[in-house]
């Protein structure tokens, strides 16, 4: 079961990675919401944030933190985001909040990815949490069939439209032994925008509550 206290501790602990004058990449979700709250206390010391979702953008703006365009900022030094699962190699499943595409973009643009989770997210093998995949709407059935061929059980997250106007398929039933290989394979399928496996670019640092994962 997820633990709100650990999420808050992780969000606050991530503040120690924020350097003066930084532009901070900001993820999405309830754990990140604690990070954004804490970031507001030092908003005078940073230039602003690059946001991974409309949800985080709204919170950042409400707290008076400037939201900047990634095309204008160039590379970022720091990205802070949550996860749905994290394995011992800091490989992740993300996208429970449907923000995976922009999250993967901001993570790719950042030198250091600090992942903030509660202990319920820590697993030995990725796949108990269904893997979110963002798809172009017309490709939903095609991708569903491709997933079945690969032993997964696809479930359309009916009613959810991503910030990019696309749909989400959640894949149940995968026990993912080689997440980077699966991520690469799925990335090749026409119609998939983003796979919620963050294995080719895993986190650099994982905070479970306020504890650093080894
Ligand atoms: C959103 C995500 C989130 O990081 C993930 O779902 C974890 O969320 P929370 O911190 O609310 O448990 O990937 O797309």
TrEMBL record:
One of its GO terms (cellular component) is cytosol. It catalyses: aldehydo-D-ribose 5-phosphate = D-ribulose 5-phosphate. Substrate binds at residues 28-31, 81-84, 94-97, 121. Pathway: Carbohydrate degradation; pentose phosphate pathway; D-ribose 5-phosphate from D-ribulose 5-phosphate (non-oxidative stage): step 1/1. PANTHER family: RIBOSE-5-PHOSPHATE ISOMERASE (PTHR11934:SF0). Catalyzes the reversible conversion of ribose-5-phosphate to ribulose 5-phosphate. Homodimer. This is Ribose-5-phosphate isomerase A.
